[in-house]
Amino acid sequence: MENLAGFLLPPVIAFVNKKVENTTLRFVVSLVISAIVAVALRFQELQFMSADQIFGSIALIATEAQIAYRTYWHEESPVRTLINK
């Protein structure tokens, strides 16, 4: 489920970050959204998970969201460039 969540998050993150100008703050917002999604997905298991597992889940979702954004959603992404030809 984490893989799918990370893949589907870029439009949500882009919508939330629409009015944020500072790039550092945009990155922090994307990490916070990834953390919220990771905790929501693993809520039932939180009491049994260690901090490493929780941060690993957050890192996985955030990384996948960044990769999906750069690959499919960014204006200069290879997929968008290919589609717009």
Structural write-up:
Helix content is 74%, strand content 0%. It has helices at residues 2-16, 23-41, 51-73, 78-83. Helix 1 packs across helix 3. The protein contains four helices and no strands. It has one domain (2-83).
How many DSSP E strands?
Answer: 0
Instruction: Quote the distance from N terminus to C terminus.
Output: 33 Å
What is the makeup of the main sheet? none
**Uncertain spans:** none
The residue fraction in helices comes out at over 70%
How many structurally independent domains?
Answer: 1
Number of helices: 4
Q: Estimate the strand proportion.
A: under 5%
Q: Averaging pLDDT over every residue, what do you get?
A: 82
Order of helices and strands: HHHH
Q: Helix- and strand-based class?
A: mainly alpha
Q: Tell me, what's the shape?
A: globular
Fold blueprint:
Blueprint: H1 2-16, H2 23-41, H3 51-73, H4 78-83
Helix pairs in contact: 1-2, 1-3, 2-3
Quick gist of this model?
The protein has four helices and no strands. The chain has 85 residues and is an all-alpha fold.
